[in-house]
Specification:
mainly beta; seven-stranded mixed beta sheet; four-stranded antiparallel beta sheet; 0% helix
């Protein structure tokens, strides 16, 4: 049973930083691809960033240069470092996982099989 638990959300002023964590309980962490998504009130869920099992990354244009996704295979954790936060970054942030079956894959899935419960990020102006 795959379990993803996000943490690190909170309230921050515009221009500030937050670091989100996603602790993953999976059979083999190093073969999983991960993504961070967010959903603001009244809006559809949108992709924020992805990371392949081999470490290749992808960012939405809206966060490029401000957010960094990373993974620590020894700690079974995926991170999202968010800098220069803007009020429009306010949303519930979700971690997602998909089995890539290889620790050396650069595949960045478009869909994910497992999702966390989300963590609220609120950026005040």
């Amino acid at each position: 049973q795959v379990q993803l638990v996000e943490s690190g959300g909170g309230l921050v002023q515009a221009g500030g930083s937050l670091s989100l964590s996603c602790a993953a309980s999976v059979r083999i962490f190093s073969t999983e691809a991960f993504g961070w998504y967010r959903q603001a009130p009244g809006k559809q869920r949108e992709l924020v960033a992805k990371i392949a099992s081999a470490g290749r990354t992808y960012y939405a244009d809206s966060v490029k240069g401000r957010f960094t996704i990373s993974r620590d295979n020894a700690e079974n954790t995926v991170y999202l470092q968010m800098n220069s936060l803007k009020p429009e970054d306010t949303a519930v942030y979700y971690c997602a996982a998909k089995e890539a079956y290889s620790s050396t894959s650069n595949w960045l899935p478009d869909e994910y099989d497992y999702w966390g419960q989300g963590t609220q990020v609120t950026v005040s102006s």
